[in-house]
Amino acid sequence: MGTNFSDVVRDDPTNNVPDTIFSKLGLQLHRRNNHPLGILKNGIYEYFDTNFPNMFHKFDDLCPVVSVKQNFDDVLVPADHVSRSYNDTYYVDSQTVLRCHTSAHQAELLRRGHTHFLVTGDVYRRDSIDSTHYPVFHQMEGVRVFTPDNWEASGLDPTSYAAEDLKKSLEGLARHLFGAVEMRWIDAYFPFTNPSYELEIYFQGKWMEVLGCGVMEQEILKSNGRSNSVAWALGLGLERLAMVLFDIPDIRLFWSTDERFTSQFSEGQMGVKFKPFSKYPPCYKDMSFWINDSFTENNLCEVIRGIAGDLVEEVSLIDNFTNKKGMTSHCYRIAYRSMERSLTDEEINDLQWQVREQVQNKLNVVLR
Ligand code: DAH
């Protein structure tokens, strides 16, 4: 990609990108044809190529460092929306972020004249730690613009026309990926679309959200040189889908370089079911402390991830109370487990000792 990320981590109060995140920039798992994320991307491409030959322009190499304007303003995210906070998003400086969704590229691509496009990329969010959440994951964005000649013959109003085309196209995609499954449309809210929907499919006994989508807000089209048009837009999370499609039980595995994982995808084909090579025992450590007003679980998780990296599997709040003086205590349980080997007691005790030390110093909480 040729992008130089050296300026992404800085000792600056408006920068909250830790080394653990920095080290993921440029890895581009979605561009590896023998990686589950690359395989899924190619599987989705195949659906669009078959059903809409030569129609969608594909981008999978756009730089994840974007402006606050691209990530939020251009897609009408309100000024007070939580996703803009330092607690939820990685800021490089006050005007620059690691994109938290691939929607960050909608406006610029429209302005560059694109009307049919798919954007795949790594996205970044501060979050809690469990088997389905990781601060870096991958999304695919799709946009299709229509002009009056498209909807005029249909007898539908432009919005209904776009919404029908969207639903038809995405039901086709879900069938392409999951086979003959039951599906349902749920009304949703996104700042950039109206109406907005989520598609759910009934898979392995549960309704599962597959993607968010909708009819693009007129304002986005107008501001980017497409008055007199309507468009649909969609965004899907690749890890969520890949975990279900390939039976991958923990999101950390996507980052594994263990050959027992990587070799299972060497054919580059959909339809593979991952065979766990072994499940090593977890080790649980609890820690309790009095929190302060600025305490957040995302900050706690970042400190723990900074020390234990991918050896931490889950962080969960197991007790929470406020005493008569109004002081609030939290007890967190940390599950340590490697996907690749057994951890020694000594190693875990050492990690936990460092966690206690840094939680106390960096978060200014009082250990109990
Ligand atoms: N950007 C949304 C997210 O990250 C996903 C999304 C929803 C994208 C609806 C879209 C859309 O383009 O129309 O959660």
Structure description:
It is a single chain. By secondary structure, this protein is α+β, with helices and mostly antiparallel strands. It folds into two domains: 5-262, Bira Bifunctional Protein, Domain 2 (BirA Bifunctional Protein, domain 2, 2-Layer Sandwich); 283-367, Ferrodoxin-fold anticodon-binding domain (Alpha-Beta Plaits, 2-Layer Sandwich), CATH 3.30.70.380. Helix content is 29%, strand content 27%. The radius of gyration is 22 Å and the shape is globular. It starts with 18 loop residues before the first helix and ends with a strand. The mean pLDDT is 96. The chain binds 3,4-dihydroxyphenylalanine. The site of 3,4-dihydroxyphenylalanine has 12 residues, from strand 9 and strand 10.
Instruction: Please tally the β strands and state the result.
Output: 14
The number of distinct structural domains comes to 2
Low-confidence region ranges:
none
Secondary-structure content class: alpha+beta
The major sheet is characterized as: 7 strands, mixed
Widest sheet: strand ordering: 1-5-6-10-9-8-7
Give the CATH H-level superfamily of the largest domain. Bira Bifunctional Protein, Domain 2
Roughly what fraction of the amino acids lie in strands? 25-35%
Hetero compounds: 3,4-dihydroxyphenylalanine
Catalytic activity: tRNA(Phe) + L-phenylalanine + ATP = L-phenylalanyl-tRNA(Phe) + AMP + diphosphate + H(+)
Subcellular location: Mitochondrion matrix
Function: Is responsible for the charging of tRNA(Phe) with phenylalanine in mitochondrial translation.
GO molecular function, one term: phenylalanine-tRNA ligase activity
